[in-house]
Design goal:
Blueprint lengths: L2 E2 L5 H9 L6 E10 L3 H24 L2 H4 L9 E2 L5 E2 L6 H7 E11 L3 E10 L1 H11 L11 E8 L4 E2 L5 H7 L10 E2 L3 H5 L4 H5 L3 H11 L3 E10 L2 E10 L7 E9 L4 H20 L7 E8 L3 H12 L4 E9 L3 E8 L3 H10 L2 E6 L3 E6 L2
Parallel strand pairs: 1-14, 7-9, 7-10, 13-17
Antiparallel strand pairs: 2-6, 3-4, 5-6, 7-8, 10-11, 11-12, 13-15, 14-15, 16-17
Helix pairs in contact: 1-11, 2-4, 6-10
């Protein structure tokens, strides 16, 4: 169980605000069931919707290789009778234990049918107990948000804003609750900051302006095209952390199986899988070390404190001393030190060792 001792009561509000779009919420779960009467149809639909949401959550927070052979193995596999099964049936009591809240939208019903959309919230502590009982490691900390610039490569032009079905595929669904949250800029405000050609040519001034405006350090420039009935997507993952030059990683191109919405979903799933492999901890004991947090004022202290408290690898962080420009803390963490460094960097905090100060947490420049 994590415990964080904060010197400032306002830090509690800061931590809560980070969890507004948390990975323990599953949105837009469609339910549809028919039965002999309305009550039975609604009961069946609700039960199926809760199980579907639990599957989404489990797949979101864990890796398939860690679920293999457990009650959460959803991949096709051979059961004990030598039969090929395509999915595991989740225990209804386990699903109910994890759920903490449910909202219903777009409800429709008849004498024998019930349809609706659900938003289901899960209790992190209950989820932790369930994964612990099954011995499945998981990741619950989100990476930093990514600004997505979806560009359609048409027959005669490049489109980022208007008449762009690739952009529509992103705006028609939300990825705020993903482990790797992503969003697309609004049409009016974004068009004044960056054009399709600016993005594709990796115009540093335009990319940094967009990053500063939306408060992000990472931008995905994703170019989509359809030729001869074949759809492909590729592009660049741009990191803005380095003030000297952009750090650019090429991605794809990949063939799209399905519609543009499927392509957007697959991109997010791929980034989630990479983030989980980078962050997941399998076994290992908790380690303790002292760290100095350096800051230039209250606002920076709050940001660094949020980075520490929001890091899934840190089990406990105790404040030992505090001054106007620095704090001394004792931190207990799981996993390898390299994983902790990486996860803190995702939250805008650098963890480095200094000859005179020892381990230091500061704002990443």
């Amino acid at each position: 169980m994590r415990s964080f001792i904060a010197a400032l009561s306002l830090s509690i509000l800061a931590v809560a605000s980070v969890q507004a779009d948390d990975p323990y919420t599953v949105e837009n779960v469609s339910i549809d069931a028919s039965a002999d009467n309305a009550l039975e149809a609604q009961t069946a639909a609700m039960r199926q919707g809760q199980e579907d949401a639990a599957r989404v959550l489990i797949e979101r927070l864990t890796l398939q290789e860690d679920r293999a052979g457990t009650g959460f193995d959803f991949e096709p596999h051979m059961n004990e009778f030598g039969e090929m099964v395509t999915s595991a049936d989740l225990d209804a009591s386990v699903v109910a234990e994890m759920i903490s809240g449910l909202e219903i939208q777009n409800e429709q019903r008849s004498a024998t049918r019930y349809l609706a959309e659900l938003t289901i919230s899960f209790d992190p502590r209950a989820v932790e107990r369930v994964f612990g009982a099954y011995g499945i490691p998981y990741v619950s900390a989100q990476s930093r948000p990514t600004l997505v610039l979806p560009i359609l490569d048409g027959a005669t032009d490049f489109r980022l804003w208007d008449n762009n079905p690739w952009r529509q595929a992103w705006t028609s669904q939300s990825f705020a609750n993903s482990l790797t949250p992503m969003f697309v800029p609004g049409n009016g405000e974004g068009a004044a900051l960056i054009s399709a050609r600016d993005a594709l040519s990796l115009n540093e001034e335009a990319l940094r302006a967009a990053g500063a405006y939306y408060g992000v350090n990472r931008i995905a420039v994703l170019r989509a095209q359809e030729r001869g009935g074949i759809r492909r997507v590729g592009g660049y993952l741009v990191n803005l952390d380095n003030v000297e030059e952009l750090t650019v990683e090429t991605w794809g191109p990949q063939t799209v199986f399905g519609g543009w919405s499927n392509a957007a979903q697959q991109f997010v799933l791929d980034r989630e899988a990479e983030w989980k492999r980078q962050s997941v901890v399998r076994g290992g004991e908790t380690q303790e070390f002292r760290v100095t947090v350096l800051y230039g004022g209250l606002e920076e202290w709050r940001r660094l404190q949020m980075a520490l408290t929001g890091t899934s690898l840190i089990e406990d962080a105790r404040l030992d001393a505090m001054s106007r420009d620095g704090a001394l803390m004792t931190v207990n963490y799981r996993g390898a030190l390299e994983q902790l460094v990486s996860e803190l960097a995702e939250r805008g905090a650098a963890l480095e060792e200094y000859p005179d100060l020892g381990w230091v947490v500061r704002t990443e420049f």
